[in-house]
Design brief:
The protein contains twelve helices and 23 strands. The protein is an alpha+beta fold and about 425 residues long. It has four domains: about 90 residues, Rossmann fold, CATH 3.40.50.20; about 70 residues, 2-Layer Sandwich (Dna Ligase, domain 1); about 130 residues, D-amino Acid Aminotransferase, Chain A, domain 1 (2-Layer Sandwich), CATH 3.30.470; about 100 residues, Glycinamide Ribonucleotide Synthetase, Chain A, domain 4 (Alpha-Beta Complex). Strands 12, 15, 18, 19, 22 and 23 form a six-stranded antiparallel β-sheet that branches. It has a five-stranded parallel β-sheet with strand order 3-2-1-4-5, sandwiched between helices. Helix 7 runs antiparallel to helix 8. The longest helix is centred in the middle third of the chain and has 21 residues. The structure holds adenosine monophosphate and glycine (GLY).
Length: about 425
């Protein structure tokens, strides 16, 4: 069959690598893709938000199955467009992708259905938000309602910071129209865990857990980024935590969406915080995590197309997921200066060192083909170096060793990805 993947990051490279292993697939396209994806798929220069061109392309090439990797097209209704064109597509429809697309929606859903999450209030008037903050305890968390590239969250330690945050989000519109509404949330403490799942409208199947490192600098310092590295599984995601989440969070979320007339098919990513009062939902995403996918998918034994088709067909209950009994660590190689300002266009060398090395992956994020078959940097997060190991410590040592195999000017990485492993 012919598969089209929509997106261009490390997550989509990891998806493409899994799809390439499927026994059902003989041709992969990716729109728009990147230099690494271009080695296993044919990249087509259509943007992820160009729905008309994408559906026309899928029809022309007789694509059998399309996988949407990114959040923006999902929230924008790409799945509805593909379905209307009679095309088979993996991902939630617009009315379900709102689970990620609106924080106010997801908070109200959790409150209505008793799913554990931080206490909160929502505002569409900055004056009311400011008045509320005068009475609230600090620290406090401000969240722009809509999609903001994962950056619309401000953690404020003082009332002054919180007031400045309301101005940034609601008045200066730093995150654009995402700031028309705002959620003000109780500050929670605890370890974070990312849990990805496949959902077919009724049944939910949980993937092996992971942990991200969102801050730019070692020791969780610096600005929030899309994610600087991950490990899987999380040793903090114990059987007890799993049992709690199965009872109080996962199935309840799927059933809540169905009860609201928003049947959910695709991936739900549960951003959890393990607080002293038990696991709570920090956020939902409507797609795989990036770089969580880069450590979770390489450990999945199932044929990914079997699982994704079952989500679309509503037959996921027939498919148990299986994971390798090992661990994986991904270290992101970024352009120095990310997430603020950085240079692009530098040649990447040394990738041949990955050839024939089982359990090592050089996933591309911000890369593009340069001249004469070269590959050059084209984004903040450039590569995701993933390695497996028998356990987390071995995987981490392998991943850091492999970060030395590739070079490019201004290469930057965190040196403490997976440090928490030592505390487990
Ligand atoms: P989100 O985009 O909602 O995942 O938020 C980004 C990051 O902000 C999370 O990964 C947490 O580290 C932090 N965060 C979000 N909400 C809270 C909260 N209620 N309490 C503490 N930290 C939070
Ligand atoms: N790594 C976090 C995310 O994909 O949202």
């Amino acid at each position: 069959m012919k598969v089209l993947i929509v997106g261009s990051g490390g997550r989509e490279h990891a998806i493409a690598a899994s799809v390439a292993k499927s026994s059902h697939v003989d041709k992969i396209y990716c729109a728009p893709g990147n230099a690494g994806i271009g080695r296993i798929a044919e990249c087509v220069p259509i943007g992820a938000m160009e729905f008309e061109q994408l559906t026309a392309f899928a029809k022309e090439k007789e694509i059998d199955f399309t996988i949407i990797g990114m959040d923006d097209p999902l929230a924008g209704g790409i799945v509805d467009e593909f379905e209307a064109a009679g095309l088979k597509v993996f991902g939630p429809r617009k009315n379900a992708a709102i689970l990620e697309g609106s924080k106010a929606f997801s908070k109200d859903l959790m409150k209505k259905y008793g799913i554990p999450t931080a206490a909160y209030e929502t505002f569409d008037d900055p004056k009311k938000a400011l008045a509320y903050l005068e009475t609230a305890g600090m620290p406090i968390v401000l969240k722009a309602d809509g999609l903001a590239l994962g950056k619309g969250v401000l953690i404020c330690n003082t009332l002054e910071e919180a007031k400045a945050g309301v101005k940034e989000i609601m008045e200066d519109k730093k995150f654009g129209s995402a700031g028309n509404h705002m959620v003000v949330e109780e500050f929670m403490t605890g370890r974070e865990v990312s849990v990805l799942s496949f959902v077919d409208g009724k049944t939910i199947r949980i993937l092996s857990s992971a942990q991200d490192h969102k801050r730019a600098k070692d020791g969780d310092q610096g600005l929030n980024t899309g994610g600087m590295g991950t490990f899987s599984p999380s040793p903090f995601y114990t059987e007890e935590v799993d049992a709690f989440c199965k009872e109080h969070i996962y199935q309840k979320t799927v059933d809540a969406m169905a009860a609201e007339g928003r049947e959910y098919k695709g991936v739900i990513f549960f951003g959890l915080m393990l607080t002293k009062d038990g696991p709570k939902v920090l956020e939902y995403n409507a797609r795989f995590g990036d770089p969580e996918a880069q450590v979770v998918l390489p450990r999945m034994k199932n044929d990914i197309i079997d699982v994704m088709e079952a989500c679309v067909d509503g037959t996921l209950s027939e498919i148990p997921l299986e994971f390798e009994d090992n661990a994986a660590v991904c270290v992101v190689l970024a352009s120095d200066g990310y997430p603020v300002a950085y240079e692009k266009g530098f040649e990447i060398t040394g990738e041949e060192n990955f050839e024939g090395k089982d359990g090592y992956y050089c996933f591309h994020a911000g890369t593009k083909p340069g001249e004469n078959g070269r590959v050059v940097t084209s984004g903040g997060r450039v590569l995701g170096i993933t390695a497996k190991g028998r356990d987390l410590k071995e995987a981490r040592a392998n991943a850091y060793a492999a970060t030395e195999w590739v070079s490019f000017a201004n290469k930057y990485m965190r040196h403490d990805i997976g440090k928490a492993i030592d505390e487990a």
